[in-house]
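#struct-pred

JT: dropping the chains for the assembly here, can someone run the whole complex?
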Amino acid sequence: MTDAQSFYGRWAQVYDWLASAPGVASWRDRTADALALAPGDNVVEMGCGTGTNVPHLRERVGPSGRVVGIDVTREMLERAREQSARTGESVHYVQADAARPPVREADAVLATFVAGIFEDPAAAVDAWCDSVVPGGRVALLNFQRSPSALAAPLNLAFEGFVRLSAPGTRLSRRSHASAFERRVAAARERLTERTVDRRYDTFAGGFLGLLSGTVT
Ligand SMILES: C[S@@+](CC[C@H](N)C(=O)[O-])C[C@H]1O[C@@H](n2cnc3c(N)ncnc32)[C@H](O)[C@@H]1O
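RK: done, full complex below.
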């Protein structure tokens, strides 16, 4: 069992409450918009957790489309399957390693609060770009320190967010946040290399960064 599986296996219920807290839905809506989905599209979410993005994706691809949620943690997928808003004929959950996703020729790939977990985020982003058809979009949403001066006190809470969203005993205690930031930066850099027509947006006071691009 990996660090992520044991962490998220233990905290699945609590994570689900946090992930579906009031206000979070608007972040997820903006993120789904960045994928420019159309009815009938096949969209894959890497590290889908408890499926909180799924209603936003399902709504955009419609009944003729397909939403595939991939996650390595059984307990997270169980929470997803329990909720009618996150299930349906067009929704499929797969327990698998998103670093080697068992999917091909998707129209779009989404990864929210996930890129900072991977040992080799650039390789994971490569695998995600390889999973979409040319012209398909890939979007990464991540927590980050806010550049706003007003946010300085809240930046102190960043370490807490990181511990919640990117468990990893291999990250040293002192450098947990900076190791996380290096991983997110590596993922964004690789997505930048692999895509055109990129968009970068920040929201939630600058604490969230959303990078999306079209795979060539
Ligand atoms: C912070 S949660 C994000 C969940 C969801 N994307 C969201 O926005 O709420 C990270 C998720 O990534 C999953 N995960 C971690 N490593 C993974 C891997 N190698 N393959 C697939 N899923 C993984 C965890 O099980 C967890 O559900």
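JT: nice. Residues 4, 8, 19, 47-49, 52-53, 70-73, 76, 97-99, 112-114, 117, 165 surround S-adenosylmethionine (CB under 6 Å). The domain at 3-215 is CATH 3.40.50.150 (Rossmann fold).
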